[in-house]
């Protein structure tokens, strides 16, 4: 067994639903990210890549079932470079990174590209096939952009509530107020805008040809609790979740170079993948699943919350983010300000298949800038799952 390292991370700007990237196919978005991440590693020729593992939550449209292979071909990689697409919904690109790290550790490949892509704008509608020819009734088009679809009637109703209703239940369970959620959302926008202004994302984000989008499209630097307080709840008449304190629908792609320490890449790694964790619970409790996933990853790395110097938690909803942070503080996380210090998905966006790659790449850079050794990247996943990765910063002089 050998260690697996992260050498480079790149993503596109994340566009709004129907926004600046709406005309770009998902396989083209993936090709942009793959081509750019290879350019960040001086010694990496595409034919050295043992596999391309990409996350994607849709697959029903222009993702073309195996968007990893399609994007690699469109990026101009040799036809000998294989590609596989994995689907763990919102955690798909973090799952891709985990699979890549395992392939490197076991010696199956020396270099693997991971990441993911989603165009929620271009996700198609689907029509279920009738069980018999010439049905007499009407048929409904079903959106594939987000959430449950074509639900099996054998599933218990409490499992198949909407993502928003599930998080309203989470707010009730943990007593998390609308005010806290709005404050958290404003913080996300403020820190994301600040990070962009300070140049933090300049070398992590590459433009998409044909688009003039240079920053994440959803960031609102002028966001305030007063403005968010005026928004109506979306999922319950008397609820706490609004369009302002939840992540939006987005388009974007991310890519990572994961390789062994002996790979001839002409550059030093930026992080070691030190621990991995997956956890599952009741489907409607999905927002809380990162709590135990992160604990499992920390246990695998042999460290505790007191050692952690940075956390990247994908902000699907403010309420689930707060619930996770509160739990981690109880377990020893020393400061809530260590979580998403460069902004989060409420501001930056959440293109489902790409977000795991974003949080992992952001975490690696944040660790290096802070001079911290240990960091956690975590993400909640629909249908009751959570995923986490612990990174170690090799620049700290750790053995």
Q: What does the model show?
A:
The strands form 2 sheets. Strands 1, 2, 3, 4, 5, 8, 9, 10, 11 and 12 form a 10-stranded mixed sheet that branches. Strands 6-7 form a two-stranded antiparallel ribbon. It has 399 residues and is α+β, with helices and mostly antiparallel strands. The mean pLDDT is 96. The chain is 30% helix and 19% strand. It has a domain at 4-123 and 248-392: Peroxisomal Thiolase, Chain A, domain 1 (3-Layer(aba) Sandwich), CATH 3.40.47. It has helices at 26-39, 67-74, 92-105, 163-174, 178-197, 225-229, 290-301, 318-330, 345-348, 355-370, and strands at residues 4-11, 15-16, 51-55, 83-86, 111-119, 125-126, 142-143, 250-260, 271-280, 308-313, 374-381, 385-392.
Enumerate how many helices there are, as a single number. Answer: 10
Reading the helices and strands in chain order gives EEHEHEHEEEHHHEEHEHHHEE
Q: How would you name the CATH homologous superfamily of the domain at 4-123 and 248-392? A: Thiolase/Chalcone synthase
Overall average pLDDT: 96
The appropriate CATH architecture of the domain at 4-123 and 248-392 is: 3-Layer(aba) Sandwich
CATH class of the domain at 4-123 and 248-392: Alpha Beta
The count of DSSP E runs of length 2 or more, i.e. the number of strands, is 12
Residues in helix, %? 25-40%
Beta-strand proportion: 15-25%
Computed over alpha carbons, the radius of gyration is 20 Å
Terminal Cα span? 17 Å
Shape: globular
